[in-house]
Specification:
The chain is mainly α. It contains eleven helices and two strands, in the order αααββαααααααα. Strands 1-2 form a two-stranded antiparallel ribbon. It is globular, with a radius of gyration of 17 Å.
Length: 225
Amino acid sequence: MFPYQQIIDKYYPAETPLRDIYMHHCRSVADKAIQLAHKHDLPLDSEDIEAAAMLHDIGIFLTDAAGIHCHGTEPYLTHGRLGADLLREEGVPEPLARIAERHTGTGLTPDDIAKLGKLLPPDRDYMPHTLLEKLICYADKFYSKNGDMKEKSLQGACIPEQVRPRCRGTLQGNARRPGLKRPEPPYLILRKLHTHALRRLHLQVQKPTATLFPPTPYRHVALLH
């Protein structure tokens, strides 16, 4: 197994709120991913799954997300790219860096990146492709880094809880000014993308050669539970 704990210790000091949040979240994702892999006989090594899950969010400390004790300067939506760059600088194997880079939402297409403006460089691939990338991306959707951090329901996994109130306020604000078209803020765009993302996130579990996306956002979610 890659010694992921050394990387975590370097950037997340012991006895800090952020480290507690980070370790709790990543351990939950790791346990969920390993459980799914065993349940569905996925051809993945448990140690690889653990290392990938424990490092997928390594870049969050560089972002401005005070609610989870991140006091950096970058937008939170960039934490995947930031984490991937950090892991590459640390000499971490490229497959682990790509998992960090490709787990945001449930993968972002070139069209999604264009809608987000200049937040992310368009010359990178932000979609999960390998089975391990898809598994970590999927398992991550069931755990937030705020609130009680307990496992979400299937419906809860489809729409990030942390953006619901802000999205509601934005929609109400626009409704008070008929005819006014404002650029959609990144968190509202992400909410829309995330609602449909489970259609795109396709785990090849029972039919490894299947290529069709499930017709509803929930079909393959139910398949994996």
